[in-house]
Design a protein that fits this description.
Residues 29-353 form the Endonuclease/exonuclease/phosphatase domain. The chain is α+β, with helices and mostly antiparallel strands. The chain contains eight helices and 20 strands.
Length: 364
């Protein structure tokens, strides 16, 4: 196993980190854990059976999350309700003094397992550094009150060509119906950074894995809900202003850096029919971590057989935070080439994604 390196970031140069940690810094991680119920036989043919076992992978996850990385804020995806309630929630609270929040997706029609084996997204946070204020969650197929008439007409009139797992066309449907039929979720946790009294909202999500139009609309739904969460957080807080709130948006966006989703989040105008979509939260989010790092540090963050790419992101505003250090991912790609393996998970890595870990400095 090639050890991954925590690299310092500054003046566009990357070197091995040896920077002191100040009081105004904290670490944040996003990680798709790969649910045991998504270990599809037709996808993970390259993984030996013993490394598919959930007990084996869970031990590796515990080692990474609890010991190796142990970030102050952890955003995880594909965490099952059963595993959250039965292990992570209690372990983090009783042994590490971390708080947590979780939302499970609704089971799809094909789901034959118990509901508590459905996955969702969770956020864990260090209570020594952060005070929990509130938690909000949404289902991304609930569009009521978030889209205007012209946008809804666009959703109804836009036709999506539906494909199977192999990418072959099988049917067509309206974008609106496709959105209603998806079960993705998003979690919003409001925190106060104890040292600086700064208000944070941490957002975690896992967007649908295909159809750019669906992912773009899901992202717009999150941003519009986030605006309401910010407003609610400020209500009743004496002297609180919108400029006091800082946003951290993390998750598996299933989108490459050249995708419409990433362009939208950066604040670029994404043109559709008779109107343009512009991120309403661009004053809070304009920057993602790979903009501050060398392209040599990451080939991929997802290594699932045929599906490989940079899909896992952490977003913020570059006037609110400075990226100080990041855990390089290139070593994983080098390791797979040396082992002549097609993808993850494997003996050393419990998921088909790698954890993305950073250290951020809070700016005035």
């Amino acid at each position: 196993m090639f050890p991954r390196k925590l690299m310092s970031v500054g003046n566009s140069l990357l070197e091995k980190a040896s920077l002191p940690v100040s009081k105004a810094t904290f670490t944040l991680m996003t990680y798709n854990m790969l649910s045991p119920y998504y270990m599809w036989p037709q996808v993970y043919t390259y993984v030996p059976d013993k490394y598919k076992e959930w007990s084996y992978r869970h031990r590796l996850l515990e080692r990474e999350i609890l010991n190796l990385y142990r970030a102050d804020i952890m955003c995880v995806q594909e965490l099952t309700c059963k595993d959250y309630d039965g292990f992570w929630k209690t372990h983090f609270k009783n042994k590490m003094n971390y708080g947590s929040s979780f939302i499970s997706k609704t089971p799809p029609k094909y789901w034959k397992r118990p509901n508590d084996e459905m996955d969702g997204v969770g956020i864990f946070y260090n209570l020594e550094k952060f005070e929990h204020i509130s938690t909000t969650s949404i289902y991304l197929n609930d569009l009521i009150g978030l889209f205007n008439i012209s946008e809804l007409n666009y959703l109804k009139s836009t036709i999506i060509t539906l494909t199977n797992g192999a990418g072959e066309p099988v049917d067509k449907d309206s974008l609106l119906n496709v959105l209603h039929g998806r079960n993705q979720v998003s979690l919003f946790v409001s925190l106060m950074h104890k040292e600086t009294r700064t208000l944070f909202i941490v957002v975690n999500t896992h967007l649908y894995w295909k159809y750019d139009e669906v992912k773009l609309c899901q992202c717009l739904t999150i941003m519009r809900k986030l605006h309401r969460v910010i407003k609610q957080l400020l209500m009743g807080r004496e002297g609180a202003t919108y400029s006091r709130v800082k946003i951290l948006f993390a998750g598996d966006l299933n989108s490459t850096p050249d995708s419409p989703v990433v362009k939208f989040l950066k604040g670029e105008s994404v043109h559709r029919s008779d109107f343009s979509l512009i991120n309403p939260l661009r004053p809070y989010l304009n920057h993602y971590i790979y903009q501050d790092t060398s392209s040599e540090l990451f080939e991929h963050t997802c290594y699932s057989g045929k599906l490989k790419g940079i899909f896992d992101y952490i977003w913020y505003h570059d006037s609110d935070f400075r990226l100080k250090r990041i855990l390089s991912g290139a070593e994983v790609s080098q390791e797979l080439r040396q082992l002549k393996e097609h993808g993850l998970p494997n003996k050393f890595h419990p998921s088909d994604h790698i954890p993305v870990l950073i250290e951020l400095e809070l700016l005035d």
